[in-house]
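Hey,

Quick one before I head out. I ran the complex with zinc ion overnight. Inputs first:
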Amino acid sequence: MGLFEKKDDRNRNKCPYCGAIFEKLPKRKTKCEKCGEECFIRTTQTIFNSDILTQEDALAADFFKELQYLGATVNDYLKIEAELSKKWGTKPKSYDIVWGVSNRLVGHPPEIENDYDKRSSILHHAKMIAFAQALYQLRRGHDPYSYLKSVHNYEIQLGTIGGILPTYFEVETQDCCEECSKYQGKKYTADELKNNPILPIKDCTSRIEQKDYAWCMCWYGIRHS
Ligand SMILES: [Zn+2]
Ligand SMILES: [Zn+2]
């Protein structure tokens, strides 16, 4: 249930930058003829009363959609928006709101199947949030390194809980890049990784979505032998 589904005043033809009216309703990313800005089409997003968004809002809406899969609700969005508005005395940017929602979501997985597995559910959920944060930061033009590092930190914690203690973590490079391939099959204990985390690999040269920063695709395989 979205915020605006009951209303019929959702914007479908106005440039979100300059307010110019599109004569032909844009179906996909379109450059506004009046202001030259790129307008993004998001017809199913639930946090803006518009199908046509600025790039910043489109990225925030995409990120929020990921957070909804992880249990966030439109009410969470409204709550953080109200809190930040009060704190700052000004309307917060969509980035600050969705980022606040994502951090608040850590530790609150949508459903925990059984209490026995509670710790691993929480860690797995936190890992998914960190991964979504990494991708969001990359798409906003920021280095995702520290967020990918959190992903792997949760991976290590997950590997050290449960009935069987792993003997070591083995780097799986997935043909990431030449730099990363030097690490293929290298093995580390949890203690070694705690002091000196390996992933994401610092010198990784892999790129996704034509972005400027590295996106290391390596992960740890957990070995019990
Ligand atoms: Zn415009
Ligand atoms: Zn790499």
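The first strand starts at residue 30 and ends at 31.

Talk tomorrow,
K.
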